[in-house]
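quick one, 646 residues, struct below
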Amino acid sequence: MSQGDTRAPSGLAEWWPILEKLGLPYSELRGVEGRASLAGVPFQAELIASGLVNEAKLFRALAQHLGLGFVADVRPESLLMRQHHCLSALRRVGGVRTAAALDAAGQPMLLIAPDGLNIAAMLRYLERYPRIARAMRVVAPSVLRRAVLGRARESLTRIAINGLFEALPKFSARFVVNAWQGATLGALAVALPAGLLLWPSQVLLVLHVVLSLSFLSCVALRLAVASSVRQAPPMTVLKAVKTEEMPVYTVLIALYKEAEIVPDLLLALGRLVWPRSKLEIKLVCESDDSETLEALRAQELRSYIEVVEVPPEGPRTKPKALSYALPMTTGELLVLYDAEDRPHPFQLVEAWQRFRESGEELACLQAPLVISNRRESWISAMFAFEYSALFHGVLPWLARHGLVLPLGGTSNHFRRAVLERVGGWDPCNVTEDADLGLRLRRLGYETDTITFPTYEDAPTGFRVWLPQRTRWLKGWAQTWLVHMRDVREMVRDLGPHSFAVTQVLFPGMFLSALGNSIFLLTILVLSAYFAFHGEIPTQYSTILLLDLFNVVFGYGAFLALGWWTLPTPERRDLWKHVLRTPAYWTLLSLAAWRALWQLYRRPHHWEKTPHRPSRPAGTRGQRRSAGPARTTLLSSSPIASTSRPG
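---
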């Protein structure tokens, strides 16, 4: 748009009389103007995103220039807006622009927070309509947005808790089992112990055969993936980027009791390469998490970062918090990160280019997760081994074959419109990621993988690892039960191949974890019996051979897949993984039995995984991959007071 266009937002020339009074350097403002031109956004938007000027000071100075009053604070109850109007305003690209309200004396006023103001046109309008001008007040955009959020809180809470259940009840985990599932599980709970009392050897054999089938299905999948993996795929070569073509990108991060990790999070987000005037970051916190909120308030956050406070109503889960924030996002694309994540700086660019080159049926892209603290403990080493197999083996293999892809819990890139169309996250599901991947596939959308990774830390101790793994296993069982309510419909939605893979990934993995302890216990008992009596009863010898076969081949397939997906320098540690695998699988089995109990007693309980700040390089005992190096490109810059490079 030309500077002479009376409808075009004002550029530096018209803003200069205001900015000069604020003492801003003209040379830096010229740089802001250049970036605005490259990004195809108004000068005002780039100026606010740059952090050169405090938002409140800028809009107070604008009000003086326009001859209007300035409002420093707005009470939500003073707004004359209905709930659905508030939701529409929150979804507007550029923010909430206008709102009618009552002043302290009960008189009506029109609050304005213009996002692409043409100053000359505004002055002419005020001169032409003095009565309207007397009722106008300028307000900082963030202040008006907070008031609208407060006004919309009831609707946002209802959507977060009931949105999926009201729109697509068959996919909601609010009720984990339906009538026929409950009856079947109840019958099994009665028949199994009764059968063990009446026909112990026969029932044990049937039980071991069923568990063995689950075990062997997982072995077959791992071997199929391992046979096709020979080296890690190379990083995607990015194409030249035209900044004006880049859409608004939303970054969502749910935080709970994460005060210590806030500086690391802001530093990691500050490395993301994306135009700051086209970036919106939502830090989603529980409203009663005072420590995390205080840690965020202690930062000087840029204007494109919003702290969203989620009311404590309903299930206290991560997906409920994300569902609360989703209706207030405006990005064409949206990515989900965890508080401890350190995404590769160019991950957003790779995802955007993949979406742009693909059809609308591609709804989600999963970035690989890389564990950076694998040397801190044997548990973190095994965790990294698992993640290598999953994110560099299983998920890319599923994507290449066009099969259903259960998402990882973070670094999921979505087309926001599709995410809303399929109901968003299920607030009652404790593995909302896997559920969403399955639901996307059932509703006709595709998921795929990208190559630029996200670095994160694994649990290093048993007390942190166990609740996290319990939650994952409980959620996978929960997800399977929800989607298996109508088996024929599920087969029709997924197709036979994806349906079969789903049975391996969800009940197969869960039953394998449960069965591992049964196999090991049976081997120990029968071996002890043989040591004392010199023989094993014939009816139990088959069970012993079957269990030995399962353990040897199960561990072997697990190790083979992990080894093939590891970077070459790390493969020399395979012998350590061989020694650790029996102990690790025993812990997996313990987590599975714990998950089974929680599925019965506390199906929607979310066990929080605590995170700790990354220790600086050189700390004793620390050999951590720090993740991507700091990026200094124009579109990557500090986003808060403690995210500035040292």
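The first strand starts at residue 69 and ends at 71.
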